[in-house]
Amino acid sequence: MARKMRKYADDTPFSLTSMMDMMTIILVFMIKNIDAEGQLVTQAENLILPVSTSKVQPKEVSLTVIVDNNYVLVDNSKIIETAEVLEQEDLLIAKVDSVLKERRETEKEHALTMGLPADEPGNIIVQIDKNIPYDAMYKVMATCGFSGYNNIAFAVSMKDGGEE
Amino acid sequence: MAKEIKRPAAPDEPDLLPAMGLFTILIPMLLSMTAFQKLAIVEVTLPERSMMNLSDDPPPEPDQQSLNLSLAITSDYLVIGARGGFQPNVYFKEMWTFRCKSDGQLITHAPEDVKATVAAGKGPLCKDGKEMDPEKYMYEIETIELWSLYKESEEDPGRVIWAVYSSQGENVPDSVFVDGNNDFLSIVGEGNLGLSPPPALKKPGAGTAVATLAENSARKLRPEDAARSIIYPLSAYDFIAKDLIAIHTQFIDLEDADNIIVVANDDTQFDKIISLMDRSKEAGFTKVNLAKLGG
To answer: A116 exposed, middle or buried (CB, 10 Å; 0-12, 13-18, 19+)?
Structure first.
């Protein structure tokens, strides 16, 4: 005997209730993870930041130096290979220093134009891959200090994703 | 004539289309504002006397009334120095914990074993028997752990010290427990290098008075917390953190009581430096400076 095919009535309305349930769950999840203050630091590609218990947030947007396994970047521009930094004897990374000094001068000029004190130490955020040796980190830090960026902060991932 | 029974009409479904429209707008907006991984900063204090200063002026004499605290890390041990003296070395065994992509499980291996495996063209082995990518294994390191070692002499390879930790799940240690005398609930491990947890070390039961290294953390263990506690190798970071807290409390009146210099050698990974800076700041040393070992 041929099986009877069940036919749906043509006027059966399309039910959105289940879709609404799904949307509500997504909405609650999003609200839980929302960061209303925004992020002044965004993680660079190709590196893993170390996890820290620090909850300190940067107060303003600062110049960023990135040190990953391949390159040292200033404001996302490749300046020198990390291997070259590790090989050199000097603490000062000349290529990075010249770029930073140029940026510092621009910042000073801008501060004078705005009527702000120009002789205050510059702020810089350094993003370093967690497996980078201390030698490279120390040279980058020394170069930042030498170029006038004495307020150095290291970017880190908040422990447990920053959840309380 | 028989009365026709009226069937109750199906309830009208509310018109959800406007709500759907609203949700469709809200979700992309919220998605753009959502932070799945929050970033923070760790500030470091640069010395006033520049490291690049090449003048021949002699460095200032150390102040005898200052603490001059330093925390040094080498490839084998951590040590606290102050006023020209040093505390006993805290020896450790470095271990790498990976998160396998294949099963999402955590595995812990010694770096030398991992490097030997990778040199043989293989990747670290996961719990499900699959191998990690030998070229990208470094990116899967979740944590670099330093397991405290008990050594009887310099030549002694040492044995791992085991302690009781609180845990939030997945057998991952959170905070180490101390007793009323501020001593770790710890015993040296058994077997080769003390890698087997000592049977004599028992988890504290519900109602036991314990504390962690955090301030005002003394409490009686709740049954759910007692059930979640785990026995895990004592972290050298915790070992050093306890000493740092004691030093900061003891010398709080000194002018440089909040200063510490973290000293490391060239090949120390950045992750370890950040962990030491974290422990120093948690102990109350807000001004952290960095220096090179022997440099």
So the answer is: exposed
* B141-168 residue pLDDT tens: 888 999 999 998 888 899 999 999 988 7
**Any idea what DSSP says for residue A18?**
H
The two tokens of residue B163 are 């302690």
Q: What angle do CA A134, A101, A157 make, to 5 degrees?
A: 40
DSSP classification of residue B119? H
Size of interface A-B (CB pairs under 8 A): 171
Dihedral, CA of residue A147, residue A153, residue A155 and residue A159, to nearest 10: 170
The model's pLDDT over B43-70, given as tens digits with 9 standing for 90+, comes to 887 754 444 444 556 655 656 678 889 9
**Per-domain residue ranges of chain A:** 51-163
**Both structure tokens of B85:** 């003296």
Q: What amino acid is encoded at A150 in this protein? A: N
Instruction: State whether B42 and A153 contact (CB < 8 Å).
Output: yes
Nearest chain B Cα to A121, which residue?
B46
Q: Which of residues 38-67 of B touch A (CB under 8 A)?
A: 38-44, 46, 50-52
pTM of the model: 0.81
H/E stretch holding B147: strand B141-150
Contact A50 B38 (CB under 8 A): no
| ipTM passes above 0.85 | no
Q: Using the beta-carbon criterion (under 8 Å), do A35 and B274 form an inter-chain contact?
A: no
